Amino acid sequence: MIAATLALLLALPLLVWTAAIFDRIGTGRGATVLGPLRSGAALLLRPNTPTEAPDRLNRLLAPGWYLALALVGLSVVPLAPGIVASDLSTGLVLWGACEALTVVVVFLHGWSPNAPLPLIGAYRYVAIGLPAMLLSMFVLIGAALPAQSLSVLAVVEAQRDLWNVVRQPLGLPLFMALGLAITLRGPFDYADGAELAGGTSAEESGPALAMWQFARAAMLVAFSGMAATAFLGGHLGPVLPGPLWLLLKTLAVMAATVAAGRFFARMPPARMLTLLWVVLLPLSFANLALVGVTVLP
Amino acid sequence: MTNVLFLAFSALAIWSGWRVFRVDSMVRASFQLMVSFIAVGLIAVLLAAPYIGIATIFMMAVEMMVMALFMVMFMMNPAGLNPMMMVHQHRFSIAAGIVAFGGLVLAVLLSDLPSQPVPEGADVVRALGHELLGPSMLIFETAGVTLLATMIGAVVLSARSGRYGDSDAGSVPPGLTPGGEPAGRKPENGGGHHHHHHGGH
Alpha-carbon Rg of chain A, whole angstroms? Predict the structure, then answer.
């Protein structure tokens, strides 16, 4: 348990760096490998911007909470058989709690500066983030059904014969919608979009912004680890050791998430809301019903 | 260790519960309440009820987020950052508070509380599932349907396509007789329901 926690904490900065590199590939900004470090260092040297009558406490804490939620979410991912930082019988529910609190934290990040653009980003994000989170919970219940357990260790073990991505093909694509939403990217980036000049981050600069971007990349790592575990068999795989398999699958999901963020177009929030409630949520019910029928004795 | 954590979480729950009534904004009040519930959820985890504890945190995060949003929407306090008074009906609330506190204290002091430590390695989540979908099925489902009805009601109240027409097209209730005057309260200063010009009065 302590070894797993240390391994995660040591691996996280490198994985965050990798996520930032993925985010930079193909954007034409150059300096793919060292660019993220340079931008981060430059941000750390700049001052934070003050705003008029902000909620100081939440403005200060929101980036830290975001990072903490990414870490707690990552802690339920088993690195090898029986080795997990948070050995909980309800690991999937803990991950769900992290998702839900992420929506709260992103809202507070936009609400606390007391400025128009961040506030619009915050309210839009809540409207989109909540249904995205809701459908991910149905998808995760689908992943838990074959294991007959909410423990993430059991979910991995239940995929020894067949990965969930084959058994329930709708699961991973629907879960990716959540990944895009909680990492504020692509078609689900209603919080920090460019059309709001950075949305909830519009008033941020300096170390606070650096921390927020680090946390956002850490959340991408946590989501990719969780998706790899719940649908791609986690640490299971032939020849190579378990943690290496988990790393490879996590990187694959991470690349797919970044690519999906670039590939899919943004929609007006109202249309996205309709898509989420009318198309994607019923699809997650259908997925759950399908899984339920297949695991009936 | 458990005792220290229990006291810390209890103190956090009480302190943030008190702050709910002392802060000056709907959003702050909602999230103070959320912190209070999270502390209670963590106490449930300490009490060997991991599902109930973590599910409480999960549900409260969603519910308080929705509550903050709806309160800002219906209270017309833009953004929820504007200062406002969070308490009203002082005398009644003081009396109700004292009665509730006294009642709960009496219940704690007078009832014979069981002491049944959960055995190590007990399958508590499975047992809870069997309880919820077995003997407690009726209560569980009644609460579920009630919540669903509440949600539908909230959506109907806040949706653009209201009961009497689109909310942004000057919706009016139907007349008491066919084609007659619209039912319901009339504006004080004689302005009709249908006019779209704002200001100028």
Answer: 19
